[in-house]
Amino acid sequence: MRQAIVRGDPSTYPDWFDGKRRQRPLIVSRWVPIAMVGLPVAVLLAIVIYPTVWMFYHSLRDTNITGLFTGNHAYIGFANYATVLGSERFQDSLIHLLQYLSFGAVLQVILGTVLALILYEVVRSNLWRTVILILVVLPMMLPPSIVGVLWRFLLTPSNGAVNQALLDLGLISAHIEWFNAGISLWSIIIADVWNWTALPFLIVYSGRVSLPPAVYEAARVDGAGQWKVVRRITLPMLKEVIAIAFILRFTDAFKFVDLVYVMTSGGPAQSSELPTYIAFQRGIREFAIGEAAAYAIIIFAISAVIVTLFLQYMKRVMRAQGLA
Amino acid sequence: MSNVILSKVNKIYGAGRTGVHAVRDLDLTVNDGEFMALLGPSGCGKTSTLRMIVGLEAITSGDIHFGGVRVNDLEPRERNVAMAFETYALYPNFTVEENLAFPLEVRGVPADERRRRARELAELLRITEILTARPPVLSGGQQQRVSLGRALIREPAVFILDEVMSHLDAHLKFQMLFDLKRLHQELRRTMIYVTHDQVEALALADRVAVMSNAALQQVGDRNALYNRPTNMFVADFIGEPPTTFIAVERCDRAGAIELRAIGADIVFDVAAERASALDAHGGRRFTVGIRPQNLYPCDHDPRMAGKVVINEYLGERSILSIVTGDVTLRALVPPETRLAPGDHAGFSLDPRDVMIFDTESGVLVA
């Protein structure tokens, strides 16, 4: 056993340290720190780093399922990337993704923010707040696959509840074919908004709750109306919180497979496919491992760029407020 | 400009038996242009009172009038009050200039005019160099000035300050006291200042309203509070170090009245003009209050004498604690008094400085 060595100026020792050399060293073996750091590193290597490197390696090779098991695959440069970027299917799916981001994710954040602020500013009784909070959050508790099944039933054109309700209200005169080309993506977006609006709602609501009440009293004394307060004070103060909600929904959009799979399987005619769904199809269903890996790397690159931009923005906002 | 009149104002938080009676039957008049301080220990109801005046808290019963207008049901903005908060409550996402100008912005004052007024005020408060900064990077003193400026910018009828100096260090506080006093002298606005610090209250205010246990104890200028406190609470609360209280018994001797301390050999003479008040009261036992600064060291024929137990040296003065019999007295003496624990010390006092209270109710008798 080695003796722990006490160095430095005794006046800088923390209160709990008596300044004496320990008879039993605090660290029993040099392997303890190595094991403590090494274990998480090993796990990270095994489940994140290794697969990523593995994927990048195969994205440069013509690997298919037999090739994967026989080791029979060859280096083909960036051919897989060329295939992916050049395919109309991928380009369409990017447009779908854009559509999904700008209507689905954005709508979720806007709706969530509006609901959260209304709940906080308008509903005064604590009981009602809790009841509404639970009701709004309920859909988020369901697994997306269940949500998908649920909405497939609700949106069934001939006897689904949604069409029936719209007919009864006189808003439409004929059934909407929710799962036809051009509409099926919107059906997925509707289900996703229903499923996930609660997340930005919760984030913004908790952000609003933690804003200092004195600032609002000051605004009341200064004579600002409620709308003015929301626009000039609440929303700017919640900027970072809302940005975080955006980041969460954006990153989720890139791994968005379950609802697509359950509701439309990307159809009809690939009209509701998102990039991740194609990667899943190509890799898991059609065993084009190399091409699927290229898909994954491209998606990763796009999301990395977007998140980096977001983080840059956050940093600027926080620096402007003197927080960082 | 207007005066503020509170009549029979009550504030009860909650209801039924769990309700907290925070302010009880408060009657208070703040004159036009007066600087009034609301002084009291934590939890005495002073901040509740102030929040009712501003309009942030509903009034349970009673009336508040601003310049003759009943304001009970008016929103803060309709009352034309401005308030500086204990926590400053600056808008963190605004620059200092935007913060200052926000009350004007909500009133639709054009941007040029807002800018001009904000700059004027910044000059008055000496914060021109931080106009473009945002509150989180400012020091406490700077934030405090900005918060004052935001309250001042729209020339309110009543100007309210809530414990605005409780987070400042002693040096900055001294500076701000000076600035506030100067501001009040320049602007001559009605100001209500809430504090638990008697030094701030006495230094700033024309009159001080002392509160305790949800009720108003006394309103008056510093002389009244100091020399004629209405009860033992005010006598104890106002003045540093605090008043010494001694239980006494009345003895009549040869036409003159004496008050003898119970458990110590001290005799207080009662001047003839106060004797009638004691007669009117009729009791035999009283509590006498003596301010430490009213005891003078004296070697010849002292009125009271005892043994020094502590000599606290405070720079420009010393506080002596003296034990005689069962009584511990405090005396404020010049710092050059070289008395060590165990030494014998004698004191004289002016009979007019003795405050005589009813022991039961604590009310001043004479």
Description:
The complex is a heterodimer of chains A (324) and B (366). Chain A starts with 30 loop residues before the first helix and ends with a helix. Chain A is built from 15 helices and no strands. By secondary structure, chain A is mostly helical. In chain A, helix 1 packs across helix 15 (289-320), helix 5 runs antiparallel to helix 9 (198-209) and helix 6 (144-154) crosses helix 8. Chain B is an alpha+beta fold. Chain B folds into 2 domains: 4-230, P-loop containing nucleotide triphosphate hydrolases (Rossmann fold, 3-Layer(aba) Sandwich); 244-358, Nucleic acid-binding proteins (OB fold (Dihydrolipoamide Acetyltransferase, E2P)). In chain B, the strands form 4 sheets. Chain B has a 6-stranded mixed beta sheet, sandwiched between helices. A 5-stranded antiparallel beta sheet of chain B has the order 13-12-11-14-20. Chains A and B meet through helix 10 and helix 11 of A and strand 6 and helix 3 of B.
